[in-house]
Write a sequence for this structure.
């Protein structure tokens, strides 16, 4: 997502608005809506529970530390999501991982690197290094903003309810931006992987896989296969997992070769859509392996 578009989204998030009826929507209403949208996007039971608790604390006007406790809950939620996206054991198995923290566990930056590119070395896709650096800078700035309010002192305590809701609204907006950034960076990297592996490589690999195809006839021969779309479904510390969609053209042969020569067999050409899954090592994701596939032959029976 381009920077100008992210800024536009932020402006929209932080702008009050009026309903068609003319009644003004309060900042608390906007906060509730924004938080609900974020909870739906995260789609995680623990995240849902923690955000619900954070909002309840924030709206307790008799609690003078409410906004700071809200920010603390949001920071814990951020930490939980980073650990979910980048588990310790996965990050520590990456070839690029080096302990940088006192306890030897992955740093926040290393977790975000894993969330973007898994175990792939940055040097594998040098053209994306600058893009990754830009995303990481924005991510760290967003995280720093989320952390500021957790450090409370007598001169930084926020007790005014209007100000508390305003700060919370910006905090949830920053959190949503963080989620956007991780998603956008991952998509950029996955697209770069697909572009790095040529279409010819995908087509050749799957044609070899389909050479053993046996559907609907005594002997089925794959004449040609064409990949229309390729997706990266997952990247771990050691593998990239792909999903492909396309068409396979087949020759359906009925009877033996002798039967067909005597005119007692038949050969029919047809084509069917397929889905295939396969993988590659992070060290060389142009060498594809371990394919499984499903060919949809339902049109044959129509």
């Amino acid at each position: 997502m381009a920077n100008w578009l992210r800024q536009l989204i932020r402006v929209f998030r932080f702008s009050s608005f009026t309903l068609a009826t003319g009644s003004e929507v309060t900042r608390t209403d906007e906060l509730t809506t924004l938080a609900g949208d974020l909870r739906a996007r995260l789609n995680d039971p623990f995240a849902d529970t923690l955000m619900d608790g954070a909002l309840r604390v924030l709206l307790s006007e008799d609690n003078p530390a409410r906004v700071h406790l809200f920010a603390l809950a949001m920071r814990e939620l951020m930490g939980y999501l980073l650990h979910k996206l980048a588990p310790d054991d996965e990050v520590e198995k990456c070839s690029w991982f080096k302990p940088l923290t006192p306890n030897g566990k992955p740093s926040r930056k290393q977790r975000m690197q894993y969330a973007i590119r898994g175990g792939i070395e940055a040097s594998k896709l040098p053209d994306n290094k600058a893009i990754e650096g830009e995303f990481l800078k924005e991510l760290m700035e967003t995280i720093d903003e989320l952390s500021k309010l957790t450090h409370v002192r007598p001169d930084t305590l926020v007790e005014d309810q209007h100000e508390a809701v305003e700060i919370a609204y910006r905090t949830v907006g920053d959190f949503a931006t963080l989620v956007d950034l991780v998603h956008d960076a991952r998509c950029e990297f996955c697209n770069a992987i697909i572009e790095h592996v040529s279409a010819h490589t995908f087509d050749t690999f799957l044609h070899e896989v389909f050479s053993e195809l046996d559907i609907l006839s005594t002997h089925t021969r794959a004449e040609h296969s064409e990949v229309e779309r390729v997706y990266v479904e997952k990247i771990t510390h050691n593998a990239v997992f792909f999903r492909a969609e396309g068409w396979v053209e087949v020759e359906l042969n009925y009877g033996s070769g002798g039967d067909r020569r005597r005119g007692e067999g038949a050969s029919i050409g047809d084509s069917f859509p397929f889905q295939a899954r396969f993988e590659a090592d992070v060290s060389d994701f142009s060498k594809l392996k371990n394919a499984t596939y499903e060919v949809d032959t339902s049109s044959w029976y129509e």
User: Anything to note?
Assistant: Confidence is low (pLDDT under 50) at residues 1-23. The chain has two domains: 3-196, 199-301.
